[in-house]
Every structure is written in C-alpha cells, then in structure tokens.
Amino acid sequence: MADSPDITRSVESFRAAAAGVREQVGRVIVGQAPIVEGVLTALFCSGHVLLEGVPGVGKTLLVRSLARALSLTFGRVQFTPDLMPADVTGTTIVVESDDAQGRRQREFKFQPGPVFAQILLADEINRATPKTQSALLEAMAERHVTVGGTSHALPAPFLVLATQNPIEQEGTYPLPEAQLDRFFFKLLVPSPSREDLARIIARTTGESTPDIRPVMDGPRLLECQRLVRAVPIVPHVRDFAVRLVLGTHPKATGGVESFATPMVEQFVRLGASPRAAQALVLAAKCRALLQGRHAASIDDVRAAAAATLRHRLIMNFEALAQGVTPDAVIENLAATLPVEAVGVPQD
Predict the structure, then answer these.
(1) Calpha distance 225→282 (Å, rounded)
(2) 267 and 194 in one domain?
(3) 289 with 322, same domain?
(4) How many domains does the chain have?
(5) pLDDT for the residue 43
(6) Same domain for 197 and 289?
(7) Angstrom distance (rounded) from CA 112 to CA 88
(8) 217-224: long-range contacts at Cβ-Cβ below 8 A with a sequence spacing of 24 or more?
(9) How confident is residue 7, by pLDDT bands cut at 50, 70 and 90?
(10) Where does a domain end: 172, 191, 221?
(11) Which end of the chain is more exposed for a tag (fewer CB within 10 A), N or C?
(12) Which of 171, 161, 144 shows the shortest CA–CA distance to 61?
C-alpha cells in the first residue's frame, strides 16, 4: 500500500466507518471502550471473538448492538447441555408436496440452522457438550457446514461472537484447544466502574432507551476487510510477530530456545499455533489503519499480543499453583523480545 492521495482517502474512509460503528454502539454500551475496539478489530480482520466476563456486564448486548449498527443478519444460539449439533447447523427434513398430476411426493430438504447468519451469538458457549461445540469448528474455520454429506456455504461476512462466564464451573465444559485456536481474539470484559455504572442506571431506567442506526452493511464490511489485508508490513516487524509467537513455545516442546523467556520455560506447557501469528499480523495491520497509518509497526504487534495469544497458551501446573496468568507471560515476552534480530526473512 503505497502512500498516495487514493490510499489516504481509503484510510480516512476506513477510520470514518469504524468511528460510525463505534458511535452507534456507544449509544447503548457504556464504557468498555477497549472491548468495543477489540471486537471492531476482529470484525475488520474477519475473525471470531470469545468474550469472557461475569453475568450482566453487557456481552450479549454488545453483540446485538454491533449486528444492528452493521446491518447484518443476526442469529443466536443459547448453548445448554442438551443442545445437539443439528440445533446449530441445521438438519435434513422430509417435505411433502403435490406434483402437477396431484400425486403426493416426498423429498429431502435441508433446513438451515441459526449458524446461517452473518453474526452468530454463541451465548454461554461453554455450557454445551464437546460434541455440540465441535459443530462450530468447520463453520468457524472454513465458513461452511457439512450436513448429510452435502456442504453448505455460510453467508459472507460470517462472524462468531461467543460468550462465557469465567466463574461458573457446574454444568460447563471447557472449550477444546482446537476451538479456542479458531477464535481471533479472547477479550476479558471487566465489571463497570462507579461512574459507568451510574451512567448505565441513568440510561436504562428512564422513560426512553437509545436506538441504534445502521451505519455499515455487509459489502462495506467486506471492503474494509480487504483493505486491512492490503496494509503492508515490513520484514522486521513481521519477523517480530513471528518471534513473539515462537517465543511462547518452551524448549521442551520443540520451541526455539533463543526466543522463549525464562518465564515461558517455567510456566508454559504448550505455546501458540501458526494461526496465532496470522491473527497477530492482521490485528497489527488493522490497528495501524484505525490510527490513520499506512503500515503496521512493532507497537501495533505488542498492543494486539494479549488478546491474540492469551487463549492459545496452555499453562502448566506450576503456573496454576502460583497464579501466573497467560497475560503475565505474554507481557513479559513482548517487553523483553529484542526488536531487531539477525537474519530477518525477506519477502
């Protein structure tokens, strides 16, 4: 993406579109600016988001507000232990009809499930059994589902925003690592501050409630996603992202010794996948555009590291015993990893 008047206009148009969505969501969501920014970044990168927070902090409301502001079709699945895969993807049913001669005919017809929406809210996703959770794997990775041996394409854009409660253990099933890896970001939704809680009460207990106006549609969102991919990233910045991901692997699991920090070696059992490096670079590109810049920087990579990597690290028993979190390991790695490295791979 060379610096030119056309590129400058594209960047400013991108920022204006993001600001419009941010403004409309802000009419309903009080505070939570970093969370809104993280979800917008994932949307512009065509990535799925896992929102983790205690009940009542606005996770579901945020997803619904985004769907309205983006003018996208919305589907919701309330995950429960008795939910079946067909309840998510859809199923084949028998349809009866009369032909031209009045004879009764039966045929099999696919009945799409709620996953056939542009924004899918997977509410309390960790309440469903692993069998049902796996129904989303193909949809999230390949944007289609296979039912009865037939593949059905999902609408574009297609984005999954899932919620889970971090403190509830009874009746829940931990998300498998394969599914966690398909989430672009994991965002930790905090409880509101004193000021924000006062604004929430004032806004939601009065005579009227704010309304959200659509400011973007599916084709425009797809244009923004293509623009993010067109943002250049110089070799040494890309290599920093690569070394950051490789640095999450301890030597015992085949990691590169020179990249892993002592903290990684002590507390991490398994590091992030190549999909994490892809997400890290795309998030850095999107952050550059949101700030009006034409190229991604190392600061952009550092800023996206926690949300991109925290759900992809598997901590060992020592980390659990000492209360060491993935965020602490990622912060240590991003802060100590050398900016420059010998032998940077070129394009």
Answers:
(1) 10
(2) no
(3) yes
(4) 2
(5) 92
(6) no
(7) 9
(8) 217/70, 217/71, 217/72, 218/70, 218/71, 218/72, 218/118, 218/155, 218/156, 218/157, 220/17, 221/43, 221/44, 221/70, 221/72, 221/157, 222/156, 222/157, 224/14, 224/17, 224/18, 224/44
(9) confident
(10) 221
(11) C
(12) 161
The single residue listed with the structure tokens 């692997």 is: 249
Cis peptide before 157 (omega within 30 of 0): yes
- Whether residue 96 is contained in a domain is answered as no
Rounded to a whole number of angstroms, the distance between the first and last alpha carbons of the chain is 15
Q: What is the span of the domain harbouring residue 64?
A: 1-82+114-221
Asked whether the predicted pLDDT for residue 2 surpasses 60, the reply is no
Q: Do both 62 and 172 map to the same domain? A: yes
Same-domain pairing of 143 and 276: no
| Same domain assignment for residues 216 and 285 | no
How far is the C-alpha of 160 from the C-alpha of 309, rounded, in Å? 18
Contact 140, 97 (CB under 8 A): no
Q: How does pLDDT run across 150-186, given as a tens digit for each residue?
A: 888 888 899 999 988 877 666 678 888 888 889 999 9
pLDDT single digits (tens) 286-339: 999 999 888 899 999 999 999 999 999 999 999 999 989 999 999 999 999 888
Q: Which residue has the higher pLDDT, 210 or 238?
A: 238
Q: What is the mean pLDDT of residues 5-18?
A: 83
Is residue 79 pLDDT above 60, yes or no?
yes
Between residues 274 and 134, the one the model is more confident about: 274
Which residue has tokens 């802000």?
26
Q: Are residue 56 and residue 174 in the same domain, yes or no?
A: yes
DSSP bridge pairs for 257: none
- In the block, tokens 């991108």 appear at 14
